[in-house]
Each structure stands twice: as structure tokens, then as C-alpha cells.
Amino acid sequence: MWKYKTPGIPDDLFERVERVPITKEEIRTIQLSKARLNPGYTVYDIGCGSGSISIEAAIQVENSGKVFAIDYDSNAVELTKKNIEKFGVTNISVIFGNAKEKVRELDQADAIFIGGTGGDTTEIIELCQDKLKKGGRIVIATILIETLFSVLQIIEKLQFDSIDLTQVTVAKSKRTTKGNMMISRNPITIISATKT
Amino acid sequence: MWKYKTPGIPDDLFERVERVPITKEEIRTIQLSKARLNPGYTVYDIGCGSGSISIEAAIQVENSGKVFAIDYDSNAVELTKKNIEKFGVTNISVIFGNAKEKVRELDQADAIFIGGTGGDTTEIIELCQDKLKKGGRIVIATILIETLFSVLQIIEKLQFDSIDLTQVTVAKSKRTTKGNMMISRNPITIISATKT
Prior knowledge:
2 copies of one chain form a homodimer. The first copy, chain A, is α/β, with parallel strands linked by helices and 196 residues long. Chain A is 31% helix and 32% strand. Chain A has helices spanning 25-35, 52-61, 74-87, 99-102, 121-131, 145-155, and strands at residues 42-46, 66-71, 92-96, 109-114, 132-142, 160-175, 180-184, 188-195. In chain A, strands 3-2-1-4-5-8-6-7 form an 8-stranded mixed β-sheet. In chain A, helix 5 (121-131) crosses helix 6 (145-155). The longest helix of chain A is centred in the middle third of the chain and has 14 residues, at 74-87. Chains A and B meet through helix 1 and strand 6 of A and helix 1 and strand 6 of B.
């Protein structure tokens, strides 16, 4: 279905449903780069939404690696499953439920993506710290200022270094009858760090 | 030197010299994603600067592929060579000279990055059209409005489809004594398209 090695699958290749968010391709590409993946890695995708990050991560970690895609919204879980089928990846386990409970049972992770915490930011990041291997990477995408602040507060207190905040604002062209106009998207702030 | 599969080598791992630009990691990562690389591919990097895109592309195309890094600034050529040595990649040929002449002699390309055209935008893009394989990708990063306009004018006339304009504005955090402030970088517009 997607035959290239570099991450960045175009958004329009994914199945979509209303109210389930997708991490757009440019933001997704940057998040994947911050996670620094390798074949054989174990990856969590907490708040997997449409599953776009899980699928790209699954391709990067290859069949020797695995991805756990978690969401508490059953629509997201269904959509992720549909996209997994569409892209023909076989190394993703989709988990329906609260990450705070579900993550405890999983194998230690080399990289964790957090796309949503359902308000339990502090608790989830503490849990991710415990589940990450030494040298493992955490990558958190935030839209809300409140989430960004909470992430920053907790991540600076825990066992993380190389903390990086990158705010990305993307605008895409739209062809009108007279020319190309740019349409701006909302800024996303990506926090990434290495478990010490 | 860099042991991960996903693109996005941190900027501070590259050797730098004054006045030779580097494509910063987040922009570089997006450019690589737009190029859709695979092992075995032939890639040009026109206006290679510090060589950061050449090196990441060389890793993606693996030893079965090759990258031609071209620059008319001898400082850029020297710096690219230094970075190639630092990262231990062996599938990049560095070419000093004017892309308009040098590109003619090269094998057909699967992907072409243009980081600078020295003002000859139209001519270089026409030449790249001729040198790109059908289905090959062109990825052009622009800072100047004039370059963006020129690229758009010519690319819409030539044998390209799936033309995409993505403007990316990145801000990075800086730790002050009182907290984290964001420092904004200039917007970069990335034009990408597929040769028909």
C-alpha cells in the first residue's frame, strides 16, 4: 500500500471518520524523527486516533519490532484497525481502554508517542518514564497550552534529559481560480526527551 | 555515527562553518519525507550546503543507492566532505561547480532536492525535469518570495503533478533563568511534485 522507506505517508491515503483526529503528515514526520526508531523496537502510541503514527512507526521498526496502539475511544480503535488492514502492517496490537491501566501490562518500550492523555498528563508521563528503557525516547504532541504546561512541569522533574520543545506551524497551498493561496493550520508543540 | 533508521539527525551533530547554510532538522525531515526515498535510488542534492540532506538521503537509499551533492561554493563542498567523513557514509559523490553544467552528465534521478539555484531557478528546474525518471520526486526549499514565485511559475508548466506547497514555521525553546521561551525561525516553503 505504501512502498517508500522514508516516513510521511500522505494524509489522504488514510481512512478517516468524523471526530477522530489524524496527526497530519508533516507533524507526524517530525514526531517520528524525534522518536529515533530502529528495526526491532517496541513502541507505544498512546491516543492513537486514526492510527497514522502507529502505522508509520510499525513500518520503521519492521517485523522484528512491534507497536502498541492505545485509545479509549472505540471509534479511534475501529479506525486504527481499518487503517492497519489498509496498509497491510502486521506488527501493531490495538488496545481499547485507558492507557493508565493498559500500559502497565506491556513490555518495556524503546519509544513512546503520546497524542492524547485525556487529561491525565502527569500520571501518564510518570508511567511512561517507568516503562521506557534507558535511552528510550518520549515524544508528546500538544495542542492545548494547558497540556504543554503540564508536560513541561512533569518532564523536567522526572528522569529525562535532552528535553526539546519544537513548535511547528504548517500552511498548505490551495489552488483558487486566480492562483495559490496558503491556508494555515494550528501550531502544534512537540516535546521530546530521552529517558536517563 | 548516527545509528537510527528514521531521518532527523540533530543539527548539532553536523560540522558547521560560517556562511554555509544547514537545512535544520525539522525542515530536513519534512523534505526527506516529500522525496519518498527507497534503497537503490539515485538522488541529487543541488546546493548541498553543509551536506545534511545528502547524508540523510544517503542513509535512506543505502549502499545500493547513491547521492550526488552539488554546490558552487567551495566552502560548502569542503564542509560536505567533512560531514560525509564524520558520518561515515560512502555513497555520496561531491561535485564542485555549477549545477546547470554538472547535472547534465549524471545518471537519471529518482529524487532531486534543490536547496539553492543561484538565481537560475527556471533553467535548473527544466533540467531537473529532464533528468528525473517518470514518477520521480522533486523537492525544493525556498526562503525568498521571488524564488517561490519562480518555482511555481515553471513547475506548473512542466511535466509535474501532485504539486504541493507546504510552508513550515518552526520555533524552538530556549531555557532562561525563569522558564522556557520560544524562539521563532523564518518560514520555509517546500514545493514538491511528481514527474509525470
